[in-house]
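quick one
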Amino acid sequence: MILVFGSLNIDLVAQVPVIPGPGRTVLAPSYQTHFGGKGANQAVAAARIAGAGRVRMAGRVGRDGFGDSAIENLRTNGVDTALVVRADEPTGCAFITVDQAGENAITVASGANMAARAADLPAALFRPDTVLVLQMEVPFAEALEAARRTNSASGTVIWNLAPVPEKITRETVTELLAVTDYLLVNEHEAVDAATAIGLAPSDYETASADLAKAGDLTCIVTAGAQGALAVAATGTRLRAPAPRITPVDTTGAGDTFAGAFAAMIHEKVPLQIALQVGCEAAAQKCLKSGAQTGMPMRGAIAALAQTA
Ligand code: RIB
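structure w/ alpha-D-ribofuranose:
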């Protein structure tokens, strides 16, 4: 089973000519409402590849209409929502601006996500075949607890270190590395995490090798158009290219990679295939607006078409 413990948001998205800097205002013709939250996005991406009934989502939403629709959306996508609990705070909401190159800037109002608790996860969930997927939009201590319980059951922990907290500490990164099997980061997150533990990486490749060694894990860097790089603790490297596309919206691309990758790790495919599937899925996502809209179904992934 793939268990995603993380955030659920509603995304309010405006297409802008340019992302405003501090003190600036830009006008957008309109806005769209999409389903989001790194946790929910990764759950949907995994379910579209793994199939209905293989993914469980755990987290919290408010007792509001956004919460109702966030849960309903997961169910429609074949994700089990029995562990999505109602909180007193409002459902998380993300305010997203997307520019003409498909790049984005996001502000997340966490709301109910900060009430997520590892204690909501029943002991029976933690088994050797459990693949736990984590991000950084629910309290770190709770995610860490879920990871430790997965470790104790000999399950697999995939931790997407996103978003990197503004002031990430050595202690946070050290604790995270100690419980993680696959660390997923983008180029900037790789450098930030390695720097936090006192290393001085010159670039993301060095950073990922440092992190893999420090945590005795596999570090995977998603590098947009440059594809993905996996570095093992031994220093062994694998690469997968990104399909060439013209992005419409990159929001959720990393989440799509994470979800698709988790589905592949759960199936125990070779790491090279897992990287390829992640890159293909993320590229397809970028062709549509909204975090989840463009996430592909299994049959649309060339590397998996034969196994649909
Ligand atoms: O990774 C993209 C996601 O980040 C958005 O869906 C938004 O909700 C924020 O959590």
